[in-house]
Amino acid sequence: MINDDERIALFLDYENLAIGARDGLGVTPFDFGPVADALAERGRVVARRAYADWSGFDEDRRLLARAQVELIEIPQRIGGSRKNAADIKMAVDAIELAFARGFITTFAIGTGDSDFTPLVHKLRELDKRVIGIGVQSSTSALLPPACDEFLFYDRLPGVEPGQPARRGRARSRPAASAEPPVVEPVGEPVGVPVEEPAPPVADEPAQAGDGDPQLLITRTLAGLQRHVDGPVLASRLKRAVLRKDPTFDEADHGFRGFGELLRHLESEHVLQLRTGSAQGDPEVTFLEDGSEVDEAFALLVDVIRHLQASGSRPPLSGLKDQLRKRRPDFSEKRYGFNTFLSFAKAARARNLIGMAWNPAGNDYLLHVPG
């Protein structure tokens, strides 16, 4: 039943996440999509709020508006009071929502700041499940153990790290007084959402997706299998797919029903269907026969062997492009891996390749043992 899904409220300490992703991963602007996808695999997101001084995040505001995130303005203040105002406002709103909306089962707190650890403890006291989300390089060691589940943004499917802005641990907050203080109007309460015109968003017509549904389904299935206890039923997979892409319709791809689409993917040796607990609702899993995965690993080994013939070990970054030169439709997600790094580590676990971290290049170097 759809009521069995978790109902999630998402609160983002946006400056902490955006600056951590910029300085630690070289990702700018902050890509909210991987967070939305990860939560869609876990349940229905019924509230989305992000807290920041949005004067410094113009492009981010537009992207978050497209993702239906409510923007809570924390005005610039003198000294360090702005940080406290953001933290207090976000904590108060979360506790208020926990009491006012009893149907919410899970709170997702996007931050790496240990100041939110008491909020996590209080929410768990109220019998709420808490999912933390943070950039690994800017997340306090105190925060993840306090949560029921913690998602490092770096490891989410779809996050493509660029060149970090600088080496070393990223700051969780921008330096205070980096800019001249802005004088606020008298009488404006701290942290109250400011009524402002919505960011300009192009008025584009909604379009049904016409791409291959295989990637969406396999990526969603892999995500469900990582955190769901027990088998993944077709009905649950369909609900998770719709949470990721509400416009998804198997009829757009030439199928009369979701079951027919799954049977087609089974005939293509992409996944496997088994009899489920209810008639017409089969269990969905990846093929136990690893022939297709073995072919992908063989391609990886062949490409690495060819590149290392030049006398140097190839780095992990850029290697996926080399595989796609051989096989343009290659995607690690087709085989159930959420990132290319996970795919490479799986090959290493099978003793097909070797991987060594290169601090100078801030990347892995790969080779084929021989």
TrEMBL record:
GO MF, any single term: RNA nuclease activity
Residue ranges of the region described as Disordered: 161-211
Matching Gene3D superfamilies: 5'-nuclease
CDD domains per the UniProt record, alphabetical: LabA_like_C, PIN_LabA-like_N_1
Signal peptide: none
Composition bias type Low complexity, residue spans: 173-195
Highest taxon, organism lineage: Bacteria
Residues in HTH OST-type domain copies: 212-288, 292-370
Protein name (Swiss-Prot/TrEMBL): Uncharacterized protein (TIGR00288 family)
